[in-house]
Amino acid sequence: MRWALFKVCVAVTTMVALAFLIPLGLMVRETARERAFTAAERQAATVGPALAITTDRDRLEPALASSDAGAAGLLAVHLPDGGLLGPTHVSAAQVRQVTADGRSATAVVPGGYAYLEPVGVSGGKVAVVEVLIPDAELTKGVTTAWLLLCGVALVLVAISVGVADRLGTRIVGSARRLAAGARALGDGDLAVRVPQADDSPPELRDAAVAFNTMADRITALVAAERELAADLSHRLRTPLTVLRLNAESLGSGEPAEQTRHAVAQLEREVDQIIRTARERGRETGTAVPGRAAAVSCDAAEVIRERVEFWSVLAEDEDRAWSLAGAERPVQVPVAATELAACMDALLGNVFRHTGEGTAFAVDVHETPDAVLVLVSDAGPGIADPASALRRGHGAAREGSTGLGLDIVRRVAEATGGDVTVGPSVLGGAEVRLRLHRAGAPAKAPAPRRRRALR
């Protein structure tokens, strides 16, 4: 915007300056021309008194030499008897024409113009005074005047650029503050507001007011949404309490233990939702979830917990399973609840889309800048991996909605990673989840060994 103002001011000032300077330059040139012809008339007039007294060559030569034009060799006198004093640049016919007309004339000659002035002498005869006007005299001082005019034009353009810079600073500064506020709001800073500077244009002040109003409204809506999520989650505690008490009354046995374990897990998830919603609601300028929140978790711990949870069902269905690479802490920039949801989606797909007795494996690999999580199975595989990764496309496996892998993909892409689907070493499908770790210390991957959690 600032450069645009500069260009507009320079263009407008230049056009205005040219509109005045071009006529002035032409007028200066014409003035120099008129000055040269006037000077020639004066030089011719200095010889007139001497010719009126005498036409003797010996007496006229000192008079010619005493004039500026005569001393410079620019003056000549054509006498009535055909005699000539000084160098001439015109033809005899031109001299006769001036003599016959009795009026002064100008003739174009090599190197300039010749001014011819008839002068009456004794005996009713006419002599002609010739004054040469060189081309240099016609343009004398024109170049200097044009340079001065160009200097004036440059000064005017410089002044206009200075004025444009002052105006541009006000406008561009306000626009930059508004753009910075919009970027901060887009990055999740709900506390950002655009200051309303007094020197800003009225339109940008109105835009700042509208932006601040919008930011206040967004903050209020996000706070209300979080409160609603916390309240709705809190309402689940009552039926969960009843369910837990009923589960405790089931007595002993494997089904009872599984039910109590599931209820406890559900209670933990609900509590986590309530805490997360409350904490983010109380924060000032919290980031929008999934954008700029500085969260992390131990991927190995989360994966071990989720595999242990699904291992109970795997034992019921007589599925062989293994977990490798989750022996030591592995930090990733993902919330524990989000990573747990990814693992549930991946392992849930194995149980939903493969038959009982189908083996599966979970492998965790750590690289200097990423963590790879591989979930493999010995099932029939995925016919169309590209379609499986597109939200809502469930044609890859019968009965699939396509939402599970989409959840995994969005979590991976939030860290700068990705998700790929391909064949596994077990003969079925393998989903590779890559979570990027920005600024992670370089570590050489340790050798992995599989171990069962039985």
Automatic annotation (TrEMBL):
<keyword id="KW-0547">Nucleotide-binding</keyword>
<dbReference type="InterPro" id="IPR003660">
    <property type="entry name" value="HAMP_dom"/>
</dbReference>
<dbReference type="Pfam" id="PF00672">
    <property type="entry name" value="HAMP"/>
</dbReference>
<dbReference type="InterPro" id="IPR004358">
    <property type="entry name" value="Sig_transdc_His_kin-like_C"/>
</dbReference>
<feature type="transmembrane region" description="Helical">
    <location>
        <begin position="5"/>
        <end position="28"/>
    </location>
</feature>
<dbReference type="Pfam" id="PF02518">
    <property type="entry name" value="HATPase_c"/>
</dbReference>
<keyword id="KW-0346">Stress response</keyword>
<keyword id="KW-0472">Membrane</keyword>
<feature type="transmembrane region" description="Helical">
    <location>
        <begin position="145"/>
        <end position="164"/>
    </location>
</feature>
<keyword id="KW-0597">Phosphoprotein</keyword>
<keyword id="KW-0464">Manganese</keyword>
<keyword id="KW-1003">Cell membrane</keyword>
<keyword id="KW-0418">Kinase</keyword>
<dbReference type="GO" id="GO:0005524">
    <property type="term" value="F:ATP binding"/>
</dbReference>
<keyword id="KW-0460">Magnesium</keyword>
<dbReference type="InterPro" id="IPR036890">
    <property type="entry name" value="HATPase_C_sf"/>
</dbReference>
<dbReference type="Pfam" id="PF00512">
    <property type="entry name" value="HisKA"/>
</dbReference>
<keyword id="KW-0902">Two-component regulatory system</keyword>
<dbReference type="InterPro" id="IPR003661">
    <property type="entry name" value="HisK_dim/P_dom"/>
</dbReference>
<protein>
    <recommendedName>
        <fullName>Signal transduction histidine-protein kinase/phosphatase MprB</fullName>
        <ecNumber>2.7.13.3</ecNumber>
    </recommendedName>
</protein>
<keyword id="KW-0812">Transmembrane</keyword>
<keyword id="KW-0067">ATP-binding</keyword>
<keyword id="KW-1133">Transmembrane helix</keyword>
<keyword id="KW-0843">Virulence</keyword>
<feature type="domain" description="Histidine kinase">
    <location>
        <begin position="231"/>
        <end position="439"/>
    </location>
</feature>
<feature type="domain" description="HAMP">
    <location>
        <begin position="169"/>
        <end position="223"/>
    </location>
</feature>
<dbReference type="InterPro" id="IPR003594">
    <property type="entry name" value="HATPase_dom"/>
</dbReference>
<keyword id="KW-0378">Hydrolase</keyword>
<keyword id="KW-0808">Transferase</keyword>
<dbReference type="InterPro" id="IPR036097">
    <property type="entry name" value="HisK_dim/P_sf"/>
</dbReference>
<keyword id="KW-0904">Protein phosphatase</keyword>
<dbReference type="InterPro" id="IPR005467">
    <property type="entry name" value="His_kinase_dom"/>
</dbReference>
<dbReference type="InterPro" id="IPR050980">
    <property type="entry name" value="2C_sensor_his_kinase"/>
</dbReference>
